[in-house]
Amino acid sequence: MLLNFRWQVAGLVPIAGDWNGNGTDTIGVYHPPSGRFLLKNENDNVGGPDFSFKFGEPNLVPVVGDWDGDGTDTIGVYDPSNGRYRVRNSNTAGLAEVNVKLGSGGDVPIFGNWDAR
Hints:
It is a single chain. The protein has strands at 13-17, 26-31, 36-39, 51-54, 61-65, 74-79, 84-87, 98-101. By secondary structure, it is mainly beta.
């Protein structure tokens, strides 16, 4: 099945995750200049995003994971200038539930479920 998504904003960074915990990854995008995330719960061409919110400062690197192990992927940001991660446990605007420096500035973030829990 081929899907063609078009959100009319230049410079979007594609991301994917299971935003609603149903076991299926769906699309999302991050707009670096505004720090805005746009996420869809269905892989279809119908309507706009199900979630649209700002998180963190503009021009950071988006990261996705199930940070709290509840079966739902949520967003975060990585600041490559200082190696700091900020992540949320819900797909909403607000303060980070986790704010941690890990590694050094310039590192490249890679995420996965390394222990299968």
